[in-house]
Amino acid sequence: MSQIFLVMLGGGIGAVLRSVVTNFFNNKNDSALPIATPVVNILGSFLIGLLMGLALNISWINTFLIVGVLGGLTTFSTLSSELVQMLTTNKHVFHFIVYSILQYVVSFVACLLGYFMV
């Protein structure tokens, strides 16, 4: 039961952080590509890799930070909806390709980099 509470608490914190980042970048961004989603996904991936690299065997920290906070911060569903919108509404195939590569490859590399930094 305590692990569910930690995920809920961390997820709430991560979701609020994502909202703050999204609002910040929505006010600053004039480009065709959404910026907030890659920022939270790449940063979150890096931090997850870093925590994995530290090999913290304290289960409540992993539950709270990785599953909760960083799970709430990063967002696969928003990424998916943005990609669908690029193909269906905006008809921007080039943006779809660039955005997909940016999200998946750079997030993976960020996670790997975080893992090997420690």
TrEMBL record:
Keywords for this protein: Cell membrane, Ion channel, Ion transport, Membrane, Metal-binding, Sodium, Transmembrane, Transmembrane helix, Transport
Top-rank taxon, per record: Bacteria
Record-linked InterPro entries: FluC
Compartments (UniProt record): Cell membrane
Pfam families given in the database record: CRCB
Membrane topology recorded in Swiss-Prot or TrEMBL: Multi-pass membrane protein
Binding site for Na(+): G71, T74
Reactions it catalyzes: fluoride(in) = fluoride(out)
Membrane-spanning intervals of the chain: 35-56, 63-81, 93-116
Regulation: Na(+) is not transported, but it plays an essential structural role and its presence is essential for fluoride channel function.
Function: Fluoride-specific ion channel. Important for reducing fluoride concentration in the cell, thus reducing its toxicity.
Family: Belongs to the fluoride channel Fluc/FEX (TC 1.A.43) family.
Protein name, UniProt field: Fluoride-specific ion channel FluC
Taxon lineage: Bacteria, Bacillati, Bacillota, Bacilli, Bacillales
Designated gene of the protein: fluC
